[in-house]
Amino acid sequence: MHGNASNSSDPRRPDKEHRYRPPVPTTQAAPGEDLTPDFMNILGMIFSMCGLMMRLKWCAWVALYCSCISFANSRVNDDTKQILSSFMLSISAVVMSYLQNPQPMSPPWASVLQ
């Protein structure tokens, strides 16, 4: 019943079919894993320490910005203690930099122009 007549009208070519294989990831992260929260968390801690140690207000504000990005991009199963500690460290860097010098922040390039 299914002779050559039905096969000749079939446009599919079984010899041209290839099974799909997903591409091999080149990074060392698991496929579908976003490393943005981890990078922002590390950057936030680095800028927080620079803001605290060198009394740079702009470093403290960048640290707070990085911590907010890390918190916003984190997943439910991430380590909340790490994100919370980075966030609190960046807030303390902002507070301490303004307690030491309550003057408004001047941009870093303003001292070069004077």
Automatic annotation (TrEMBL):
<keyword id="KW-0472">Membrane</keyword>
<dbReference type="GO" id="GO:0005789">
    <property type="term" value="C:endoplasmic reticulum membrane"/>
</dbReference>
<feature type="transmembrane region" description="Helical">
    <location>
        <begin position="83"/>
        <end position="99"/>
    </location>
</feature>
<dbReference type="GO" id="GO:0045048">
    <property type="term" value="P:protein insertion into ER membrane"/>
</dbReference>
<feature type="transmembrane region" description="Helical">
    <location>
        <begin position="42"/>
        <end position="71"/>
    </location>
</feature>
<dbReference type="Pfam" id="PF03669">
    <property type="entry name" value="ASTER"/>
</dbReference>
<protein>
    <recommendedName>
        <fullName>Protein Asterix</fullName>
    </recommendedName>
</protein>
<keyword id="KW-1133">Transmembrane helix</keyword>
<feature type="compositionally biased region" description="Basic and acidic residues">
    <location>
        <begin position="10"/>
        <end position="20"/>
    </location>
</feature>
<keyword id="KW-0812">Transmembrane</keyword>
<comment type="similarity">
    <text>Belongs to the Asterix family.</text>
</comment>
<dbReference type="GO" id="GO:0044183">
    <property type="term" value="F:protein folding chaperone"/>
</dbReference>
<feature type="region of interest" description="Disordered">
    <location>
        <begin position="1"/>
        <end position="34"/>
    </location>
</feature>
<dbReference type="InterPro" id="IPR005351">
    <property type="entry name" value="ASTER"/>
</dbReference>
